[in-house]
Specification:
- The chain is α/β, with parallel strands linked by helices.
- Strands 3-2-1-4-5-7-6 form a seven-stranded mixed beta sheet.
- Helix 4 runs antiparallel to helix 7 and helix 5 packs antiparallel against helix 6.
- It binds S-adenosylmethionine.
Amino acid sequence: MIIPPIKSQGIKTKLVPWINELVASSGIPEDAGWVEPFFGTGVVGFNSPLTGLHVAGDTNPHIVNFYKGIQSGAVSGQTMRAYLQRESRRLEDSPDDGYSYFLEVRRRFNALHDVHDFIFLSRAGFNGLMRFNKHGEWNVPFCKKQKRFTAAYITKICNQVIDVARTIAKSDWVFSNSSFLETVSAAGETDLIYCDPPYFGRYADYYNGWTEHDESELYNALSRTKAKFILSTWHHNAYRHNEMIKRYWSKFNVSTREHFYHTGGKIENRHPMVEALVYNFDMVRKPCSKTVRQMELFAETA
Ligand SMILES: C[S@@+](CC[C@H](N)C(=O)[O-])C[C@H]1O[C@@H](n2cnc3c(N)ncnc32)[C@H](O)[C@@H]1O
């Protein structure tokens, strides 16, 4: 599995095998295109089994610029290593347990938007969170580990950059700082659209506000598309159900599965969550029996 260098509370690493199994069950040919309007860290797209054109959209310009940087070669394993080695020394030499240097990088990033600083903040911030205030500024506090960037950790991050660079080089990729309607409209009949919008009624920040109007616009766009689509959303947790499922998505196929989120500032966000995959196609191949059992289990709670 390709693990991207960016961390985020919304990362879908654990759902990748389930999503890929559904892609395989759809019967879509391997050389079909992949269209992903809410790209985030990119973990789903980078592990997609499809080999056609990949269109990756996101309204967060820092994510898009970072991956464009890898694509152009401006960001590589080498540039990342040189950067992190230099910055880790500065962090370690900072007199107050590293806090003032972390704040200096954060101020610098918020002024200049350097893509290497973006990774520094993603990897040295509290709990792997990505969060921007109402002015669009990164505002996650320091993880309080002055020796955060050990040699092994730097190598791990650089290898992740190299893995992503290799993945991008294998097929055609377009990274676009666009809103979802624009990206969805780029999908042709033979493409697969994977959508992972911000969850309605849950976490929100500068790049992750999500209203019912957005949900209904996405619903309209996905109802109109001739492409196959898969949408990730939440189904329910111990406290409540996602009312958007009944209101919009239940006209399509809905499969559910439990997932535990380890990151998140709020305690509510650290509980198990039943995730849903909504899709608009019939399976031409059944998923493996383990997946079927899990789907049946959770269907009972739906
Ligand atoms: C839940 S995250 C996607 C996580 C991703 N699947 C992953 O595994 O990392 C949602 C993403 O949608 C982006 N986003 C929010 N509103 C958007 C919009 N209106 N159009 C496009 N992207 C949007 C956010 O910047 C964020 O990166």
